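Lab notebook: predicted structure, single chain.

Context: the supervisor wants predicted structures on file for every construct in the current expression panel, including those that have not yet been purified. This is the next one on the list. No modifications to the sequence; it matches the entry in the shared construct table.
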Amino acid sequence: MARRLKRPASDWLLLFLCAFEVSGFGLVAFYDGFSPFALLLCGLMPVLLVAQVLGLGRLFPHMDQQTLIIGNFLCALGLILLCRLRPDKALRQFFFYLIGVGCMLAMTFFVAKARNKRALRWPVMLLAVGSLGLTLLVGKETYGAKNWIDLGLFSLQPSEFVKLALVYVFAIYLSERRALRGNLPALAFAGVCLLLIVLQKDLGAVLICFVLCLFMYYAATGNLLLCSLAVAAACGGAVLMYLLFDHVQLRVAMWQNPWVSPTEGGYQIIQALVAIGSGGMAGLGLGLGSPTTIPVYDTDFIFAALCEEMGILVGLMVLLVYVLLFLRAGLLALRSRSALDSLLCVGVLASLSSQTFLIVGGVVKMIPLTGVTLPFISYGGSSLLSSMLMLGVLQGVSINAGRREENAWRRAHGREEAET
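Prediction complete. Output recorded below exactly as produced.
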């Protein structure tokens, strides 16, 4: 009797995600009337997913299929929620998703194929600093932070892409030099970016950028003293920001006791907690809740909307999916034999994990709200494009690592055959 071949885990993930997309978009298409767009996504999203997996798999046999499937799962979940909550924004998010897939592919090719990745360091730094400076001059203020540039058809949040610029610049410099003097350009670039974001009063972006720089520097140098001094300086800066910015004081006060102002400052947190509590463990059902009572339910508080209609258990499962993504990034950093590639993975891991912790922790009242989005899921073109670019970084590093392992295996077996 012939032995049955064991199906790879990525195939089961792909099958599960296709079934999830068909059932999710199909349910939304008919839950309240009829939505032709949701029905279109019911058939189109699985096709796009399979095309990505098969297309990249044919071009690059060493791609990380599981990481790609996890990222697409989170994107699909966000689109399902938006089709239910804001059908008008779901169409825009789908177009950003298509652009994001293209950006992910471009970043994958760049990381996997570019021979001189260091050539773009200065243009990237100048573009990042220039975009942040332009935001201070012509940006629009939202919830106390001046971090958006209105381009007419859509708005751009430069700080989302500055995170990726910091990952790239730090990886380039730290992979070349470990001495403090050699890394001064990268540290100066980080300092200027953090200062400009502080002037924008965007506390969430400041925290994320600081955390990714700190993690990357410690991973590359192991300099505990300098990192401790940086943490101490950050704590002092946080106190200073609290004293200078009124909206930061308000967020801390509402975190401590939102019932002091239940109809104004504390309204967001209270409604989010009520939504999560009313959903319970199993949820009210997709389309049966009232998540629209939560302010900015499609961006900052989309996790509360998810828990209300799908349940706390599903919310915990989504967090587990994020943890799996972070573990894949960490394992890829350990697997890579290139210092540059390892540091790229560390930066992506630190950026995505800190952003996820900040927004989920703020929604469940674990920490004060910081006004960031949930990666891949929340509505927002800048956030989605930035997350997809980071997914492309992981794919490129996986391809490089697999290629090096294959070459090492061939050399080892070639020597064995020659000795035989």
